[in-house]
């Protein structure tokens, strides 16, 4: 990919919100000569320090480590001296955003070219001073050298001259065989700060004179304030103001405890909205009914469902996946200072440009008057792609002009009023011939599309091309079916639905991979052997619904991952007494292939908040393309395992339009003594040409792998989450 000063790379991640990555390379003359900044990504200071402007939000996925590695490799800088600065929305970047497992895969080429361009300009500056050919120079660890004469300039000595060089349109990049940084295991750059409490997350932001706010919101979906009495709230010591905002009533105080106490003292009359009667049990029935007939066809292989008529027998099963919340350790929060002609925001956001636009709209300010400072995120998982908490904070600060205000959501607020992963029902049907060979396959999914940004129109929910982008894990199933038909039915719900780690895939992969296991049992086949047979010999031409993803399901890559796990897990060996093995695999829409084999036993007499089983061993194989940081790959696998383990024990339920769960006590997440005793990660295909995303792909296959093992132990099929003790009681 060639890069010019005016060229930009623009990538839209459709389906996971308005995620756009942009980089515009800027004219060197725009920047002061005391620093050398050839483009929007990199700056070199007079002392030789290389500074990367990080256009991605760090939320535990390690971009503060992996992205500087890419830049340092091409710049030929000492990686340990590269400094990271978080970029803010402004003219140097088209759009900043983090999500969809795209951080590394979409910045790989821009960062390589940014580093290569800077290196070429530094070499040209040194050659000019020495009056030699640039070809006679070389770079090494932050310096330009002239080997034949032994002369040497540190990068810092060249910044003024380099800034006057023309930006090369197609700078040569390093030969990959000479890489000394990319592909090596590196520790997390900010690990020490996190452990020692020095890392500043959004909730840690402090400004002089800052006040704190919490918001009272309608207890039922879509409700509105009719009237409120703040007399008692204002009598609470420390309460400074009570403010009516769009979504409710905010209490502003000198500290959070006073704000919460003041909120509890409010008397609010609410008008119920259309969601006041919503009930998740009733919704589950509606979802199942929606799968009784096919929805919109999003994929058809061969004759589709028509081939089912030739089946000698059919296997049919219905799987259900619940509503779930994000429950990140750091509840959402946002700090805002509004003044007459400007606004400054400190937010742990995944979409800073959206936050800037919200502030511009609420305050009627130009973009140049709104600064958004992106803070560390104590967990993102798609929750902070939404801007609801920023919007509230900006409205509160507008009413408190001249005073910075931090609006905080309590844990209860976060679980009750955030957006959720949608509940879904999956009906899967397999047609078999007299020899128990698969002749037809059908997967019908019914769920609620994302609605937090803009609810889909009836035309969109009926359009196969649109719906296909909401059906990850269904549409892009890696298997080579002799005949298949995949359908999607959109079912309305008043619950706010939006991105959640791995977005649309977890529910679909859970249902599909558990059903494949059922199919293996019905056919008396080994689950791994059956999957290998179903992968076939040829790659599948399935156009991507994700513009930066692969246009091909490369079944040979999937096959290598499956075979690696089977070998390393010694799949063909019997499980120890009292244990069972489970297997599942998936290709994620970013072109990442993951497979798991797990070994599980049951735990008797556990309280409801604890998992009724133990995962003894996890073996994972992952092909995520070119690997930047192998340590980061292993961390992502382990984090995906823990996330999916939590998904096996928690759900959000609704009655009368209200979430029943409110804290970790009734929305439990995995704790230390529930984590797997052993997690092995095997990296496949690490020398590929380019990286693929990894933040989310490791989540999807783990859940069905565990459920498949549990179904064998229990002697009955588990088709619904979360897994309860009754689900795994002895046969």
Automatic annotation (TrEMBL):
InterPro entries listed in its UniProt record: Ald_Oxase/Xan_DH_a/b, AldOxase/xan_DH_MoCoBD1, AldOxase/xan_DH_MoCoBD2, AldOxase/xan_DH_Mopterin-bd_sf, N-heterocyclic_Hydroxylase, OxRdtase_Mopterin-bd_su_IorB, TAT_signal
Q: Gene3D superfamilies per the record?
A: Aldehyde oxidase/xanthine dehydrogenase, a/b hammerhead (3.90.1170.50), Aldehyde oxidase/xanthine dehydrogenase, molybdopterin binding domain (3.30.365.10)
- Origin, by domain of life? Bacteria
UniProt-listed SUPFAM superfamilies: Molybdenum cofactor-binding domain
Q: What are the residue boundaries of the Aldehyde oxidase/xanthine dehydrogenase a/b hammerhead domain, all occurrences included?
A: 196-274
What GO MF terms are annotated?
oxidoreductase activity
UniProt name for this protein: Xanthine dehydrogenase family protein molybdopterin-binding subunit
């Amino acid at each position: 990919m060639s890069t010019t000063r005016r060229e930009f790379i623009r990538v839209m991640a459709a389906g996971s919100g308005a995620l756009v990555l942009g980089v515009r390379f800027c004219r060197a003359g725009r920047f002061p000569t005391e620093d050398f900044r050839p483009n929007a990504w990199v700056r070199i200071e007079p002392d030789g320090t290389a500074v990367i402007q990080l256009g991605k939000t760090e939320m535990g996925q390690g971009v503060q480590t992996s992205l500087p590695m890419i830049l340092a490799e091409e710049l030929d800088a000492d990686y340990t001296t590269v400094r990271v600065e978080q970029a803010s929305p402004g003219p140097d970047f088209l759009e900043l955003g983090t999500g969809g497992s795209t951080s590394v895969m979409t910045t790989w080429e821009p960062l390589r070219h940014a580093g290569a361009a800077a290196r070429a300009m530094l070499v040209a500056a040194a050659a000019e001073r020495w009056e030699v050919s640039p070809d006679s120079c070389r770079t090494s660890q932050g310096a330009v050298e002239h080997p034949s004469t032994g002369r040497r300039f540190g990068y810092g000595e060249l910044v003024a001259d380099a800034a006057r060089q023309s930006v090369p349109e197609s700078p040569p990049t390093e030969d990959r065989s000479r890489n000394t940084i990319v592909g090596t295991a590196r520790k997390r750059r900010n690990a020490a700060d996190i452990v020692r409490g020095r890392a500043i997350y959004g909730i840690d932001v402090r400004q002089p004179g800052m006040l704190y706010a919490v918001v009272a919101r309608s207890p039922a979906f879509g409700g509105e304030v009719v009237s409120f009495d703040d007399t008692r709230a204002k009598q609470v010591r420390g309460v400074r103001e009570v403010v009516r905002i769009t979504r409710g009533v905010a209490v502003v105080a000198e500290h959070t405890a006073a704000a919460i106490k003041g909120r509890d003292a409010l008397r609010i009359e609410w008008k119920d909205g259309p969601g006041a009667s919503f009930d998740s049990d009733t919704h589950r029935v509606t979802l199942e009914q929606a799968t009784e007939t096919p929805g919109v066809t999003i994929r058809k292989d061969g004759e589709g469902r028509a081939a089912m008529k030739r089946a000698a027998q059919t296997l049919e099963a219905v799987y259900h996946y619940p509503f779930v919340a994000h429950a990140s350790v750091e509840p959402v929060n946002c700090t805002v200072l509004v003044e007459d002609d400007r606004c400054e925001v400190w937010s742990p956001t995944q979409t800073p440009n959206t936050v800037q636009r919200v502030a511009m709209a609420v305050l009627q300010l130009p973009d140049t008057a709104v600064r958004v400072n992106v803070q560390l995120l104590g967990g993102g998982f798609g929750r902070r792609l939404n801007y609801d908490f920023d919007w509230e904070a900006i409205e509160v600060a507008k009413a408190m002009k001249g005073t910075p205000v931090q609006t905080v959501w309590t844990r209860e607020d976060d679980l009750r009023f955030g957006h959720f992963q949608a509940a879904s029902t999956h009906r899967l049907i397999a047609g078999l011939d007299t020899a128990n060979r698969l002749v037809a396959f059908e997967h019908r999914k019914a769920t609620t599309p994302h609605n937090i940004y803009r609810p889909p129109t009836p035309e969109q929910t009926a359009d196969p091309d649109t719906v296909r982008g909401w059906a990850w894990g269904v549409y892009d199933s890696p298997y080579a079916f002799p005949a298949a038909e995949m359908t999607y039915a959109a079912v309305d719900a008043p619950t706010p639905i939006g991105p959640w780690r791995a977005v649309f895939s977890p529910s679909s992969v859970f249902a599909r991979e558990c059903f494949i296991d059922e199919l293996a049992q019905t056919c008396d086949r080994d689950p791994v052997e059956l999957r290998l047979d179903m992968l076939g010999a040829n790659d599948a031409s399935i156009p991507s619904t994700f513009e930066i993803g692969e246009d091909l399901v490369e079944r040979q890559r999937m096959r290598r991952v499956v075979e690696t796990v089977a070998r390393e897990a010694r799949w063909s060996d019997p499980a120890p007494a009292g244990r069972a093995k489970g297997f599942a695999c998936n290709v994620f829409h970013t072109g990442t292939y993951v497979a798991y084999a797990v070994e599980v036993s049951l735990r008797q007499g556990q309280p409801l908040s604890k998992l009724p089983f133990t995962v003894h061993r996890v073996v994972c194989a992952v092909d995520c393309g070119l690997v930047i940081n192998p340590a980061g790959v292993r961390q992502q696998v382990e984090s995906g395992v823990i996330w999916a383990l939590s998904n096996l024990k928690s759900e959000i339920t609704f009655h009368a339009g209200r979430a029943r769960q409110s804290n970790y006590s009734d929305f439990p997440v995995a704790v230390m003594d529930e984590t797997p005793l052993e997690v092995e990660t095997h990296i496949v295909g690490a020398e590929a040409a380019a990286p693929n995303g990894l933040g989310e792909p490791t989540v999807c296959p783990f859940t069905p792998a565990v459920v498949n093992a549990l179904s064998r132990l229990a002697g009955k099929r588990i088709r619904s989450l979360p897994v309860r003790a009754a689900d795994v009681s002895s046969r």
